[in-house]
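User: quick one
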Amino acid sequence: MDQIVFIKYSILILLRIARLGLKHGPIDMIREIRKYDWLWYLLKVIGLMRRMSRGRTGLYREAICLVIYTVVCSIGELLEGVFLHSDRLIMNEDMVPSEIARAMGLTTWTTEVLGILLPMLDPTAMEEYIDASENEGIPPDVCSLPKSTMGMALKGKLPDVLAIVASNLPCDGGMMSYELIEKALKAPTYRLDVPFNFYNERATRYFADDLKKMIAWLEERTPGRMDWDRFSEICERRNRMAELEMEIWDMIRTRPAPLAAEAVYLPHLWHFNITAGSEASLKLYERLAELCRKNISEKKGAVRNEKYRAVLWNPPFLHFLDIFNWVEQTYGVALIIDSMTYNSLPIIDTSTPDSMLRGMGNIIMQGPMARHTRGPAENYLDDIFRIYKQFDLDMIWVAGHVGCKNTAALNGVLREMCREAGIPLLILDYDLSDPRIVTHEGMITQVEHFMENVMKAEKLS
Amino acid sequence: MINTDCKTIDYFHELLVEPQNSLLEQSVEEGLIPIGYTCSYVPVPLLSADRLVPVRVRAPGIAGTEIADNYLSSVICSYTRSLLEFAIDGRYDLLKGWVFVASCDHLRRLWDNLTYLKKPSFNHMLDMPHKTGQAGEDWYIEEVRDLAEKLACHFAVDTGSAMIEKSVRGYNELLALLRSIGELRMKERPPISGSDFHRVIMAAQVSPTRLIVPHVRTLLDEIADGDGEKEPRARLMVAGGELDDPEYIRAIESQGGIVVADRFCTGSIPGLEAIPLSGDPLEDVARHVFRKTMCPRMMEDFDTRVEKIIETVKEYRVDGVIIQIVKFCDIWGVESGSLVSALRDAGIPVLKLEREYRLSGEGQLRTRVQAFLESMGR
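Assistant: Done. Structure below.
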C-alpha cells in the first residue's frame, strides 16, 4: 500500500510537469529551459519524495507525498505566471506575502523561492550562485540565501518583472540584498518598513499605511488594480487554513504525534509563504487535518517509534532535509514543530479593507522568523520556551546557520537559559544553502554526539 | 607635513586613550550624568541637555573578545563584541545609562546581551525606521520625544524646550569649529592630517561639549592660516563603517597620502552642519539627525549616498576613495559591493578594505594602500 501511494504521487507529479510543457508549447519550453537552466532541477522532485518517504509508512507517508505533490503543482502555477503572464508579473520578497498582489490580479514570483526549493532537490544547486555573488564583492559571511538570490539575479536567472516588493525583513543581509537585486533586474522596488517594536497600535497603523502606499505604488507601475472583494476571499481562505493548522497543532501535541516533520513544516513553509489563501493550499490543509484526525482516532503515531520530541528553531536544513528522516529512524526523534511554522497571530478580520490591511500587516510583522529577527531578544527566546511547553517536547534543536548573525548572537543567552531550565539543547552548525561549509556527515556527527552524550540515547535496532 | 603644535594634538590623543577621558571624569565629579551611545542616529544634543553628557562608546586598546564571543558568537562584528567585552570588564561603569538605536542586527543584539548580562538601569532602544520619507521622519520624531520623556523621568533632568535649545546652541558652536577645521582640508596642502583631524572629531564625541570647545578653538587658531609642509602624494577619502581609531587613518597616511575627506558615521561628512532652530528644538534636533546621517541601513537611499561621495570627491579634490568595512557587517558588506562599482563607473579609483575593529595587520594595510597609490600613478 505504501508503495502504491508513492507510485500514485509520482505519476501525478510527472503529469503536472508534462502539463506545464504542453501548455506552454514544447518550443517555447525549450527556450525557457535554455534561459532558466535551473528548471532541470525540478525533475529531481521524485528523488526528493523517495528520500522523504523512505521508511515512513501509512498516512504519514501519504501526507508527505501529498505535500510534495502540491508544491510541484504550486511551482507549476508560478512558472505559468512567468511564462504566460509576464505582462502582470511582479516579484515579492519571501517575507512579503503575495496575497495583496494576487488580489490586484497580478502574477507573482517570490524572489527567494529558488534559494529555498532548489537545495531541497539538489544540495549543491546554489553553489554556483553563491560563488557568483561572492565574486561580485559580496562578503562570504553574508547569509547564503540572499547570496544565492543575488547570484541568480547577477547571472540573469530570475524572471524579468514589472516591479519588486521587498522589506527590511528578515535581517540586514536580506534587506541589503535588494540593493543589488534592484539594480541587476532594473526593476523599480518598493520596500516595506517593519518597526523594531511592532506589538502596538502605533506600529500596526504605520505598517498598514505602508501597505496602502505599496498598493498605490503597484497600481501606478503595473496593470494590477486592488480588488477588495478578491482580497477578502483570499484572506477568508487564509484564515481557514490557519484554523486548520491550529487544529493540527492541537493534535500533534499528543504522544505519539499523528503527523511530524515534512508533513508539518513543509506545508507551512510553502503554502503560507508562497500561496496562502489559494484554493489549492486550503484543500491541502483540509486533507492534512483529515489525515491527522484519522491517525488520532486510530491512536497511530506518524513516527514508528517516537521516543523523543523536538522543535527546530530557525529555518529547516534546506539542503539536508533527510536529516529528520534519518534521526527518526536512528533515534526515534520526531520533529514536532519548528519556528518557521509557529504563527502567533494568524487570523485576519475581513470586515473592511482597513481591517484586512491591519491584519495582513500584523501577519507580516509578527509572522514566523519576522518577529524573531526584529525586535528585542524576548521575541526570539520566549517563543522557544512557550513552544517547548505547548508541544510537550524533550529537546530543542537550533539550526545554527553560520550566516545568521542575528540569531547566533543569542546562542549564548539561549544556552544559559536552557541549562537553567534543564532543557537539552543542540545547536547544529551548518550553512543554510551551502553544504560545502558543513558537510552532511559533519551534521550527522553533531547529532550523534548530542544524542549519545547529552540525551544518553542508543541507536534503534 | 603638519604645522600644528604637537601639544594640542597630543591632548586630543590623550582624550582617546581610555573609553572615558579626564574631561568626562571632571564632569562626573561636577555631578553630570554620562550616557553612552553607539550610533549617529542618537540625538546628541538631547543627551547634552541639563546635567546629561553624551559619550560615544568605544573600546580603545581592546586586546581580545573571548568572553563576548561566548555570547555574541564570533560571526558578529568586532566593534560590538569589543564593546560587550569592555562592558563585562566593567570599563563603562562610569556610564549611568545607554541609548541604542535599532540600526543594525549587531548593535540590536549587543543591546540584548548587555541587558541580559549587565542589566543597566537605563538602557533605551530608539526605534529607527528604515525609510527616509515623511512617515519615517514623523516616527523618529515621536521616538525622540519618547526618549526625552524617559530621560527626564529617570534622571530627573530638564529636557524641556529651553534646555534643548541651550544645548543645541552649545553643540552648534562645536560643530562650527569642527567644520572650520574640516574645511581646511580642502587646501592644496592641508594643515592637518586625516588622522589628527579624526582625533579631534573623536575627542569631540567622547567629551562634554562645554569642556572640549576651548581646545578645539585653540587648535583652529593654531592652524587656520597655516599650510602643510609638502604636497601630499595623493588626496584620499575614507568611507565605510564605524571607525573610531585615528591610528587606522595614520596607517593609511603612512604611505605619503593624506586623508582629506571622510564619509563614515564617526567622521565629519555630512554632519557638521549647524542644527537649524525653527520652533520646537527637540523636533529640530530629530529632523536634523534623521536627515544628515547617511547610513546604508536606510533602504531606498543608495543613489543619494553615492552622489554625496562623488560630490565630496569633487569638493575636496580627492584622488581616490578607500572603503573600509568592519568584517561581518552585512550592511556595509553588501553596500560596498554596489558602491565600488558605482564609484568606478564614475571614474573614481576605489580600494576596498575589510578590517577588524582594533587595528591589526598594519603591514598588510600599508602594502594595500601603497599598491593603491601606485595604481593611481602616484
